[in-house]
Amino acid sequence: MNVKATIVFVSFALVYLTTLPLAPYASQFLPKAIPIGVLAVIAYVKLDAMPRYMVLTALLCSLAGDISLALPIADSFIIGLSCFFLAHLAYAVCFASLHRYKRKTPTSDIISRKVKWLVSIVIVSFAAIMAAHILPASKALCYPVVAYISVITLMGMTAVWLAQTKLIVTGALLFVISDAILAQSVFKTPLPLSTFWVMTTYYGAQYCLTVGLINMFLRKEHKQN
Question: Beta-carbon neighbour count of residue 56 at 10 Å?
Fold first, then answer.
């Protein structure tokens, strides 16, 4: 992603972050969703054919989740949870697609086998800890929360073992952190500046995943040509 596109994304993200002290306010979903919309436009322009639609599916499901969580509607949380469930599945499909060909990727971009095992243990252990911490308080949402923890764990593991690049793995870990902070806020006692940290790690996750996938799919296309 070029510098101008990054500046546009970061600028819109900062606009939303600086308005958090004013929340809730009318049409809050717009500034919240615009940064993800920017990434979707970039993915559409940079990619072509199936990679374009796979990445767009992940980003548009995320955007729908952002809007759902920000709207004062009935069942907004479960709708948002469902949207992000689909987003994580779409990201996992992207990572699986990358793994189906021999990449011409610089060794410096790929995490080592030791790091893969270490990160995998961290992801699985953290998921188990969060499940034990959150599920007793989730009550009627127990099964949806179990499903969501399972899919984000799947997304993280496929990022580590199938995509394998440092940028994509960083994005996956940031997504796990963001959702963990959100879960703590929804089901337990919110952390100080909880919303700020949720959105900061979330925007960072989406940026890393989008840029990482664009780079890898473009390498794939270049190699095939």
Answer: 18
Q: Find the domain containing 113 and state its range.
A: 3-224
d(CA 207, CA 189): 28
Which residues are within 8 A (CB) of 106 and not within 5 positions of it... i.e. 6 or more apart? none
- Residue 109's pLDDT band, with cuts at 50, 70 and 90, is confident
φ, ψ (nearest 5 deg) of residue 47: -105, 170
Distance (Å, whole) CA 210 – CA 212: 5
Task: Quote the pLDDT of residue 12.
Answer: 96
Q: d(Cα 93, Cα 73) in Å, to the nearest integer?
A: 30
Give me the number of domains the chain comprises: 1
Cα–Cα distance measured from residue 69 to residue 72, given in angstroms and rounded to the nearest whole number: 8
pLDDT of 193 higher than 90: yes
Confidence of residue 74 (pLDDT cuts 50, 70, 90): confident
Whether residue 24 is predicted with pLDDT greater than 90 in this model: the reply is no
